[in-house]
Input
Amino acid sequence: MAAIGVLGLVTGLTAPAGAAPEAVAFTQATAVRGADGGHALSWASAAGSDRITAVTSPEAVTGVEVGQSGGTGALTVPPQPAADRWYFRLTPDRGDPLVVADRHLGFASARNFRDVGGYRTSDGRWVRSGVLYRSNKLSGLDADEQRRLTGLGVVKVVDLRNLVERLEEPDRLPSGVAYQVADVASLEHGVRFHDQALMTLLEAIAAGLLSGSSDLGQSVGYPFMVNFVGADRAFRDFLTAVATAPGPVVVHCSAGKDRTGWATAVLLTLLGVPAEVVEADFLASNTYTGNPRAVELSWLRAAQNQVQRLYGGFDAYLRQGIGLDEATITALRAKFLV
Output
């Protein structure tokens, strides 16, 4: 089966020491959609057997039973009837069920449109699918793609782009979807930095040259997303919007890889997703955009290094830099983690 969704869901992790099998049934799960519309599933669990049901909503508990196998198994599911998206509910004979889906949605006008869910955390939990999507600009959505957006239950779109980008290519959204701006480069609240801008610039250029970066502008831009106070406000507004929205949210910028890439990395790190998995999600933009140099790992690490330099750790960045309160952090973890 030719895979459309390349990254799939995170694999190969083992249950954390001391975790109860009933609470952490699945240690690995993937769902990859093929070119024919079918899906290749694989999983590993502590259960004796698992029942697999195809459903059209991540919340659905009933659907079309497509197979049953032991605790570790694989299954090729033939194409199902037309639906906005197929999910697969893996129900073990003991322990909690898990819902998986191919991460990529296949929007022709928004190639980098994909689910942020489906990753396993360091403590053995999973990030729910169908809660947050990341994308490139939505200015080219046609009528059917807008209908699919509605079918996914999306209630809000958060746009990280600057004013010029928004005016030149405004989002085309279906009625009923709220629109919120969280401009990462906004000067509305002044030009302020947590540390000397010149020092950040010189260090970023030096690090970019040392890493062999193909784009020094990006090598500089990423640490400034941490140093610039206006960016803090934008990322706080984004995370607060996700925490409080009554349904699924889409976050996007222009290409869906830099501002959106860092925003997603921040959220996944907050949720406890391992660093190597956060990096894999970031680098997946190279696959989905069709550009093997769309992003480079050194850019992401430049922002991460700036977090360490300014705050000494990620938790301090969340609270002191972005300015998230404990209630929002708790709400995000409750909303995403199963």
